[in-house]
Amino acid sequence: MRNSVFFVTIVLAISCTSKVNLVPDTPSDAPDYLCTWNLQGYVCSYGPPEEMRARMTERYLFGNGPFEGWTSLYPQIRQDLYFVMDDSWDIPADRNERWDNPYYGTARLDTSRFPSFRGTPEERLKALSDSVKGKGWKGLGGWICAQKADTDQDVPEAIYWGDRLREAQAAGVRYWKVDWGRDDHNRQWRENLISWGRELAPDLTIESAMNPDFISFSDTYRTYDVENITAQTVTIDRVADLLKYSPEGNAAGIINCEDEPYIAAGLGCAIGIMRHPFVGNLPSGRPDHAFPEAARDLKRRIDEITRGVRWHRIASPFCSDGLSFSVDTLILEDGWIFHADESWIGHAIGEIVYASAPARVSRGMPLPKVGSDNPDRPFVLASRYPSGAVAVATIGRSLKRSYVLMEVPVEIEIPSVQSKVGVFGRYESLTLRYPSDLGKVRILAQDLAGTEAVDISDRVTVDGSSIVIPGEVIADVGLSAASEGDISDPGLVLAII
After folding, report:
1. Model-wide pTM > 0.85
2. For all residues of the chain together, what is the average pLDDT?
């Protein structure tokens, strides 16, 4: 219904004014978020993990000093995002060790880290939640250690986690990123936590990780940590593997592919933002090895985050049903020759790290057709969303010492002229094939980072039931709202009137 109403709104707008915004004003309902872990690492120049944990404090969230004020980031889209505090918002400020730390799993806001937020556990968590939402975020989230704190070992699991789930619900906390801990691979423990959550905290999304089959009972499932040099290839491969699992009961079964917004758009996944706009070297002067400037230089690709998140206002991430997907048998392999400071995993200088993934993956529709057999061609992804919207994405390659996004002809099938189409990446041309003759139509396109559509009818070819869009049109429109200095690949939405 929301999709149909929006389409009618577009038609009415065109009849009344020349200005049309194809992106709804209403924030998305997708479980997208910003995670603070790489912010914690950046501000301490990625010192030992204990130093990264020590930076999870009230001052860094709300302060005005250098590299502080994290709740002020992403102003254009934070109404669409949960602000997820990573490790260690819930443990004492002077206890940042990982091993033998009796406070891990406390899951209650620690007053030594957040001294302005006082009262009962529920009261101080609610005060923080209200402050975060007051900054414009959709809601507050937190990293959860997959274990009960040693300080409360005598409390039964159901009571322990039941108390914290009730507190989260009452406080307005909306996301738990449940990560490592003693029970991280314990299927029964995770199933219990999610079951208790659905009963006691129905507005809370609980994310799983670690074992791929956990997606079958989870609200969301995170594809987990990657090196950014090879992140796209590894993430595509992990998502493709997850698509074979079917949901159990009322599981939402949404895949979170972390910091890869165009993969998320192309494959109907949620986004967990890890990058941030603190460009350049670390405060120590060393290169930022988490976001190396080599290859994609992700900290100068903030617009693609904006585009991916705003696409979710049009088409929400959807459940993996174990059935409606296709995975190419052709595998493309990337190989990166590492130099110093290009990964958080230690690699010898000159070491070659390989990663491979299916050349094409689709959900709810046939695989895209790619008019090139060049071994360096891009990965191509496509999905038909439950709303009827369709997305297609070309994803670049990490080859030797270069990020390569070759422009190739791509062809996809579109179920209806009412289907809005998201187009991400670069193309030689993109052909959209419809089920019947199109007749006389107008074609609007808009940079997903922008607020105004343009008529591209005279820049494309309409031939019977097909529309052919030149690659330069996709690039021109899909970068028309680009921020100064941003090097993101294009991302746009199309609508046919």
Report:
1. yes
2. 95
